[in-house]
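Show me a record, fold above all:
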Amino acid sequence: MSSSPVRCSYAIQLLVSNHDISNKYTTELDRVPKARLTKDQTCPICSIPFLDDPYPLVVRLPCHKNHLFDMDCIRPWLKLKTTCPLDRVDLKPKKKEIPKPAIADDEEEYDDMYA
């Protein structure tokens, strides 16, 4: 018994959509200016010093001020996982819940079933 390519493709899309952090989120991450980088700082994913690249695109994750990554490394990571590679803090943006309006104690809930 073999799986159809369409079914496998759909399963992969479902898996990725459940874990995916949008490109908008990654483009809005804090950028680290080249002037603030030191020679000994490296990307924790690829281990290449940031300053080896003449135009480094280094971003800071919101979980910790020292969690710096090459954008080219962290974007694919966040496509597969929604956590920081260093401390596993969940980075997926929380959905904002709309609070329900409170009913005052002296008011009764309206029920149009009775006249």
Notes: The longest strand covers residues 30-32. Residues 21 and 95 are 13 Å apart (CA to CA).
